[in-house]
Amino acid sequence: MAAIKKEKKQDKLTVISRTLTVIIIAALIPLSVSVAEYARYEYLLARHPLDYSETVEKYARENNLDKYLVYAIIKIESGFNPKAVSGAGARGLMQIMPDTFDWLREYRLGDGERDYGDMFNPDDNIRYGCYLIAYHLGNYGNIDCALAAYHAGDKRVDEWLKNALYSSDGKTLDKIPGRDTAHYVDKVNQAYKTYLKLYERAARAQNG
Question: How do the domains of the chain map onto residue ranges?
């Protein structure tokens, strides 16, 4: 009889213990989710910095650009490394190519005294890059075409727009045939969306 009572007491304690465990786990689940979300938020912030903010905001404003689009381009182009050089020879934060530099300097910005070495200077590079993306946006009227032109050149984009396989209306790209360019446009768009989401959230939190 004593053994039976002892077993019943143990069963009761086991039930109580399991119940408490379930209650504790249930209470901790929302906390763990919020901690995980916060950790991911902090990780994304670190991966999407606002470096060179004064310069970016200055030239974004001058060219009527969303500053977060500029940040997204810099992130994908150079990872915010002002000394970055691509395999094709593009330089600096926004990866300006030599022929693009010459065209912008001579025919758009009137910088006769500039040389290509100045593209390692963040101020000069961002000025040129912002002008270029604004030029493409004004020319095409949509971000995808502008980014494709920034990456592959406007002549190639013009050819794609004339091809019914890639554009149904001659104004937007239904498909980007160049794999590298398609990947580039997708990456910048994703970074741009992340910048908007992160810093709009930060702004809301700051404003209460």
Answer: 1-47, 53-206
pLDDT digits (tens, 9 = 90+) for 140-162: 999 999 999 999 999 999 999 99
- Set 77, 106, 113, 159: catalytic member: 77
Give 66's contacts (C-beta < 8 A, 6+ positions apart). Answer: 60, 192
Q: Which CATH architecture best describes the domain 53-206?
A: Orthogonal Bundle (1.10)
77 a catalytic residue? yes
CB 131 within 8 A of CB 104: yes
**Residue 138 CA to its chain's centroid (Å):** 21
Least confident of 3-7, 38-42, 81-85, 182-186: 3-7
Of 41-45, 126-130, 177-181, least confident by mean pLDDT is 41-45
Residue 96 β-bridge partners: 91
In Å, how far from its chain's centre is CA 35?
24
Asked if pLDDT for residue 98 goes beyond 80, the answer is yes
